[in-house]
Amino acid sequence: MKFKIPRELDVVNDQLRSNSVSPQSPLKRTEENGCTDNDDLATPQTPPESMAHLNTQFLSRSWHHSNEDSKHIPVKIKSASMVPVPLILPPAEPDLGSRSQPTSRRGSVEYDSNFRRFTRAYLIPAAKWAYSPLSKNKKKVKHDEDYIIEYSTFRPLRNLPQLTSARDIFIHWRRVVEDETKIPFDFPENYLSERDFSMLLSHITEIIELEHEFPQRITQGSSGSYFIYGRRPNGEIYKAGVFKPKDEEPYGPLSPKWSKWAHRTFFPCCFGRSCLIPNLGYISEAAACCLDRHLQSYIVPFTEVICLRSPTFFYSYWDQNSDVTKLPQKIGSFQVFLQGYSEADVWIRQNPIPSDHETISNLPKYSDVEVDINESEFTFKWSIESMRQFQEEVEKLVILDYIMRNTDRGLDNWMIRVDWTQVDSDSKTTKIMKPKIKIGAIDSGLAFPWKHPDEWRSFPFGWLFLPYSIIGQPFSMRTRNHYLPLLTSKLWWEQTVKGLRGVFTKDQDFQERLWHKQLAVLKGQAFNVVEILKLGYAGPLELAKRENLLVFDDVMYMPENIDSNEDIFRMQSSSYETDTSRQYDDIHTPLLPSQAHTYLSNSLVAINEDDVANGSGYEHINRDSGVNATGNRRVIIERLVKETSRPPVFTWW
């Protein structure tokens, strides 16, 4: 049945249609501006007062069955008396397209507004997309599972303490600090708690966005890095740290160094380091600090991944803005500035290291100097004690760089400082000052490779070119007692791996596969360190000559509680005896089935899989209970592998 709408309702219907599809409606304008107004979206449009008594259902049907020939339609009345109410139509409005209306100005205004709307909605976003770096949604990182090492390749020594609890690790740290400083335990200078760093971050953000003390770009280096300033209580401005944005790295799309841009654009085959993950320097900086904290060395300044914004940062044309609060945030690494340190190459030129045997034999035993009571400047001179101090500090740098396989450690990216302490004296006119050498490791953005260098360059460590009197000596006893208990502790490795993974997962391009490769290289390097520290005659030179190794983490599921004698028998069954007697064992991970054993089990199809004697206890439990069955725990079996890739072409570069 077709309904016919009287001519009196055509005007009302046309008005409703224009309100519902008009480009000037509030909902349409809200969507075009890119924002949402909850009040406008939640409040329905109120119909005209003259249509208050019309049935909504009938009107919706009348839009689809309109006919000008119909003069009467049934209208449902909301009134209880069911008495028809006369329809009051609004006064007719003049046609906007009539000659009496100024069409030229109206058309130009509409054209300008439409063009501005089109520019905001389409042109500017398209230009930003074309000229800005590609932005990817942050991938979902797999939930952190328990990292429990069941079998470790790092074997502890019997005469050294074993660290099996967090309390043991802290006591070891306290003992190391007190033995080095000869005073009661106190936190190192580079130590910074989370609360202190949070306060520092709030302070520098306020300095930038409210006081407009903007960061200053550093001219040295191959990436965009900036000095971040702070204000002391007395009003003095000081350098609080160094910020390195991710998108301004040499691999980044917004690197401000034109030489690196030309290098990457015109000579891509000679650019970058294939062993490193591109655009991950800021994560490497923070991971170096994390590893240094776990090693209890504290030679790396506190470093964390943060977000900052400033007009002095290098932005694309479409993101530039004079108002700092309207600029997009940049993610990068923030490293606390080392106060009072000098670059190693500058300090060594000013204080040449004794290298020949005759000069070293004539050195005094101590470097203490006696000066006037009011003197504040002191002259450093080498002595037997200062040579020992410098060697122990360099050994900290050697172990840190070697474990994280730093590919960019020269004499220009580690620092040296001499602290002076007054020695008790009976004189009232003079004082005796004692020097203490400290080392700071900065610029660790080219570390943590996913494979060993195997192409053109080998990236040797810069400290290998120090005089033989420093780098050619065996590792000191203090260094051995410091690092061996840590590197051979399962608990320490579990905490360190969890901490490093937490840093690397902050990157939106984090990949689990590459992380496992990075960890294999790191553990292989640490294995070489442990083996060298066990030898009393070996030092950094012997460490650098070690072959490249990898330590992979194999996952296995084991039962949490073994109560029955049958399960104990399975655990002690053919996992050790059958495979070893048939020479199918793996000398590094005896708990894992070897490839030869897998081949035989696949070829002998007549063997019953339910037979207990045909498999080890681990295989039987995993087969019956399932890999992720309730009651099984996830453990790590470390597997040592020799690197088989060819050495780089240039071993000295």
TrEMBL record:
Enzyme Commission no: 2.7.1.67
Region feature Disordered, mapped onto this chain: 1-50
Keywords, comma-separated and alphabetical: ATP-binding, Cell membrane, Kinase, Membrane, Nucleotide-binding, Transferase
Composition-biased stretches (Basic and acidic residues): 1-10
CC cofactor: Mg(2+); Mn(2+)
Organism domain of life: Eukaryota
Name of the top EC class for this enzyme: transferase
Domain PI3K/PI4K catalytic: 212-552
Pfam families xref list: PI3_PI4_kinase (PF00454)
GO molecular function: 1-phosphatidylinositol 4-kinase activity; ATP binding
Polar residues bias spans: 15-27
Keyword Transferase: yes
Location(s), subcellular: Cell membrane; Vacuole membrane
GO biological process: endosome organization; Golgi organization; phosphatidylinositol phosphate biosynthetic process
Membrane topology: Peripheral membrane protein
Catalytic activity annotation: a 1,2-diacyl-sn-glycero-3-phospho-(1D-myo-inositol) + ATP = a 1,2-diacyl-sn-glycero-3-phospho-(1D-myo-inositol 4-phosphate) + ADP + H(+)
Family indicated by similarity: Belongs to the PI3/PI4-kinase family.
Protein's recorded name: Phosphatidylinositol 4-kinase
Record organism: Spathaspora passalidarum (strain NRRL Y-27907 / 11-Y1)
Organism placement in taxonomy: Eukaryota, Fungi, Dikarya, Ascomycota, Saccharomycotina
